[in-house]
Amino acid sequence: MDDDEDTPPVLHKFTVVGHMVNHGYQMSKYLVTKLHKSVPNYYQAPEIRPMFDLQWDEYILKMKRRHGGQLWSLTNNVAVFFDDQFIGDDEDLLTYLTTAYKINLTFNWQTLGIQEVNNQLMSITSRYRQLVYLTVAIDRKIIGSMLFELYNDLVPNTCENFIKKCENIGEKGYAGKKIHRIVKGSWIQCAGWCWDAQDQRCENYKVPHDRRGVLGMCNAGRHRDNTAQFFISLDPAQWMSYRYVAFGQLLQGNYILKQIENVATKNEQPLLNIEIIRAGEFKMYPSKDETDLISPQVFRTLDFQEDLQNIFVSEPPSLFDLSKYQQGMYCMHTDLKSHMPFVYLPDLLMKYMEEIEEPQEGDHEQDSSTPLTPCSEYQPVFQSSSSNNSLVTL
């Protein structure tokens, strides 16, 4: 038998890396996956690497420094490799495939990106980790929100203390506190000085300070005054790894961190007023209590007289309204968050963040009488520059 017949064919491999809500990334992901399914004898299963913005920024900078060349001209948030050789972004992939294939695409790439973000966040919360947001304003102008993942499975007590302060209102909460120190190229320090010194054990040092965006607790020495002020790293700082407890990581909002980082300082104090406007836990689904677990058929009218008065409906309250409320079709005056899951990210998330960032009466008092105004350049936490539909002929 001929040796060539015994030799298995060499399969080619695509690798797609990118910001998961980018329409070019979603298109490239679909194309290389479709090629593998259509021509499995020629293409092996592609490697797909979805990323949030911080992870993408770190990755592409490392690749540019390592390989150089055409990577420095990459402007879109997606990189495509063929047999480990860089071929470009989504447009270059289309050009590359035009010579051999003809495919019509009529997909909503933004919807696919939304679904992938939703899946990524759900995978985080399924590991019993929580998500928190910090909304920041510079000189009374809101610049956006940062989204963090907390490592509840590794440092549960530290995460619990942090979430309590995110959700507390007034002097015991982070809302209204300053970002009071910026150490260029190292870290930013948050929450101001107006805290009573409280001690708790430095839980452990399992989480390393090995990248940008690490969330950690400040202290005045081991186990001392380590429950209030926190920091966000701007670069890897391994010297911190056994001095300060790290408990979280920035997922989305690196462009917010860059704006804070670039504020001018004097003696490491920012010359502009930088403030945490809102802080809290970001939930994909509401927590369920006992009433959510009981069948609606066994509910009695008397149990919900107060709830019925709070439902947003034009007609008089009724059990029919209540049944709709239980299905997530209504909300109540007393509800803090919607009972519907965040299925339509990033659009729904953008509205959610806008509600968070809109100043309300009764918010913490400020020295300045100038009202907070959203920045015109503000972008939602998860964004995509794609059009809703794309028709591409290959």
UniProtKB/TrEMBL annotation:
Pfam families: Pro_isomerase
PROSITE patterns associated with the record: CSA_PPIASE_2
InterPro entries assigned to the protein according to its UniProt record, in alphabetical order: Cyclophilin-like_dom_sf, Cyclophilin-type_PPIase_dom
SUPFAM superfamilies linked to this entry: Cyclophilin-like (SSF50891)
Gene Ontology CC, one term: cytoplasm
GO molecular function, one term: peptidyl-prolyl cis-trans isomerase activity
Compositional bias segments (type: Polar residues): 381-394
Coiled coil region boundaries: none
PPIase cyclophilin-type domain residues: 133-281
Ranges for region Disordered: 358-394
Gene3D superfamilies tied to this protein: Cyclophilin-like
PANTHER family in UniProt: PEPTIDYL-PROLYL CIS-TRANS ISOMERASE (PTHR11071), PEPTIDYL-PROLYL CIS-TRANS ISOMERASE D-RELATED (PTHR11071:SF561)
Protein name per UniProt: PPIase cyclophilin-type domain-containing protein
Organism: Brassicogethes aeneus
